[in-house]
Amino acid sequence: MAAASIAFSSPRLSSGNGVAESLASSRSSLAGARVKVISSPPAAISCSSSISPSARYDLNKFSFDPIKESLVAREMTRRYMTDMITYADTDVVIVGAGSAGLSCAYELSKNPNVSVAVVEQSVSPGGGAWLGGQLFSAMIVRKPAHLFLDEVGVPYDELEHYVVVKHAALFTSTIMSKVLARPNVKLFNAVAAEDLIIKEDKVAGVVTNWALVSMNHHTQSCMDPNVMEAKVVVSSCGHDGPFGAAGVKRLKSIGMIDSVPGMKALDMNTAEDAIVRLTREVVPGMIVTGMEVAEIDGAPRMGPTFGAMMISGQKAAHLALKSLGMPNAIDGTLKAGYLPELVLASAEDDETTATA
């Protein structure tokens, strides 16, 4: 879709209005930017002081339907336990629901034949993608990764070599809402992957526990874990935090890889290409993606740019599809007419291609 060129006009300012002058200056600095319009804006909503006669309830006489507290408890418990039973043995387990993990889950979820469990130790998924750098709001995405934003439906300001999402949370909340709406994905947040299941030198799943239990083993006697078997494990544990790079660190501790040197100092141009290029199946049954790639390979960190997280997640998804023996964009097995959502956008234009 062609980007729309929008001219920013300054509002009429009164003398000495510092806030208005600052706003006008900010808008002026964006005069050369193009704003990508993803879809037509919704029809204008008319606001009035009274509720429409067609409203389904009256806010002046509002009352909820009755319910028993035990019904609430049973409903939540039944559904969660059903999910635990369903995903005790699944196709793909993604460890870590940051920007790379969510992008991987989004891409995998396009294939309705693949069941995906996402394990996230935090109560709030999203990792570091709720904010840009240094607790600022804007998210910077270098081209051509903006094509992923187009697909997901995240608007942005377009500049020559990069785009800017006005708030990182707009990307994170948008992709999360799409992932959670898919019938073949379940997010288990506040759950930690404490260990790996290894069978015949192949990763075959993860060992799970409530995150708060995992972080407090030293305060109690033994609190045993649970398990999720999987045909493929995608490790996207990132680099910071109590579970940073937990997947590859565990591989090193059991001798399946030689070292985890940790990421090098920042170099955006080198880092983002390296993270995508080095996203791979590091041992049989386990794919690494996102900043965990930098940890295992000693690649530079990239700081407050997020394109590599998205594309690395997409690549990890197609590597997982390849491992499952399904059509994917890595080995060119995607055929015309087969799940067109899985066909990746081309970096050169708005056409599509089935090659990596």
From TrEMBL:
Please give the catalytic activity noted in the UniProt record.
[ADP-thiazole synthase]-L-cysteine + glycine + NAD(+) = [ADP-thiazole synthase]-dehydroalanine + ADP-5-ethyl-4-methylthiazole-2-carboxylate + nicotinamide + 3 H2O + 2 H(+)
Q: Note the Gene3D superfamilies from the entry.
A: 6.10.250.2840, FAD/NAD(P)-binding domain (3.50.50.60)
* Note on cofactor: Binds 1 Fe cation per subunit.
Q: Which cofactor does it need?
A: Fe cation
PTM field: During the catalytic reaction, a sulfide is transferred from Cys-222 to a reaction intermediate, generating a dehydroalanine residue.
Q: InterPro entries recorded for this chain?
A: FAD/NAD-bd_sf, Sti35, Thi4_fam
Q: Which residues carry this modification: 2,3-didehydroalanine (Cys)?
A: C222
Major location category of this protein: plastid
* Statement: the UniProt record of this protein carries the keyword Plastid: yes
**GO process annotations (BP):** thiamine biosynthetic process; thiazole biosynthetic process
State any GO CC term.
chloroplast stroma
Q: Which UniProt keywords apply?
A: Chloroplast, Iron, Metal-binding, NAD, Plastid, Thiamine biosynthesis, Transferase
Alphabetized GO MF terms? cysteine-dependent adenosine diphosphate thiazole synthase activity; iron ion binding
Signal peptide as annotated in the record:
none
Known EC number: 2.4.2.60
What residues bind substrate, as annotated? A100, E120, Q121, G128, A193, D224, H239, M291, R301, M302, G303
Q: Name one Pfam family in it.
A: Thi4
Its annotated compartments are: Plastid, Chloroplast
Top enzyme class of this protein? transferase
Describe the subunit structure: Homooctamer.
NCBIfam families this protein is in?
Answer: sulfide-dependent adenosine diphosphate thiazole synthase
Q: What does this protein do?
A: Involved in biosynthesis of the thiamine precursor thiazole. Catalyzes the conversion of NAD and glycine to adenosine diphosphate 5-(2-hydroxyethyl)-4-methylthiazole-2-carboxylic acid (ADT), an adenylated thiazole intermediate. The reaction includes an iron-dependent sulfide transfer from a conserved cysteine residue of the protein to a thiazole intermediate. The enzyme can only undergo a single turnover, which suggests it is a suicide enzyme. May have additional roles in adaptation to various stress conditions and in DNA damage tolerance.
Q: Which PANTHER family match?
A: THIAMINE THIAZOLE SYNTHASE (PTHR43422)
Q: Which family does it belong to?
A: Belongs to the THI4 family.
Name of the protein? Thiamine thiazole synthase, chloroplastic
Name the source organism. Selaginella moellendorffii (Spikemoss)
Q: Which gene encodes it?
A: THI1
